[in-house]
Amino acid sequence: MSQGIHRKIRSDAVWAEVRKAWEDGETARSVARRYDVGVHALWKRREAEGWTRPEPNAGPVEPAEGWGAYVQGRRDAFEARLEEARALAECLVEAMQDERLTRAPHWHIPWLYRWRADHLGTEAAARDRERAREAGHPWAEVFWDEDGVLRPLHRLDEEMARLHPQDWRRAVGVPEGVEMEAP
């Protein structure tokens, strides 16, 4: 008895059906099982004959909550971010108009000083330093170097966090008792 390789011979009509099923998106394993052809043979034919699947034209998949609820949720999230940004803008505009920065939250003061120095010049920065000293602000001696030059913003942020560690912890949202380093 001879031990040859058993080959499945399928007609061109069967292979046309295999090709159509595969190109329509069915998996090779599923098509091979359904038409009783080998997966390896299917891949060889696909390569030799240049079978391709069309680009998917399906639009976005509908979310589980439905399009109406999804759109409303996205709109609500956008409006919340917009309201937060507008509140911050109002706070900063008010703080910029108050040269003593008495109405600015701690975490915006470094940026405000840096902005004023960059946009209003060294005279404004010198006035800011003098006003901070007059008001007895703890940052008056650490935000500026010995020559009176305002330090870079990241240093100002670090100093503000160091000067107000508990406020910084609350602002960041780290609970008491959790080890953390200031920025």
What would you say this structure looks like, in words?
By secondary structure, the protein is mainly α. Helix 1 (12-23) packs antiparallel against helix 2 and helix 5 (109-120) runs antiparallel to helix 6 (122-135). The protein has helices at 12-23, 28-35, 39-49, 67-97, 109-120, 122-135, 153-163, 165-172. It is 58% helix and 0% strand. The protein folds into two domains: 12-49; 82-172, no CATH class. The mean pLDDT is 86.
Question: Topology, please?
Answer:
Layout (H helix, E strand, L loop, with lengths): L11 H12 L4 H8 L3 H11 L17 H31 L11 H12 L1 H14 L17 H11 L1 H8 L11
Helix pairs in contact: 1-2, 5-6
Question: How would you briefly describe this protein structure?
Answer:
The chain is mainly alpha-helical. The chain is built from 8 helices and no strands.
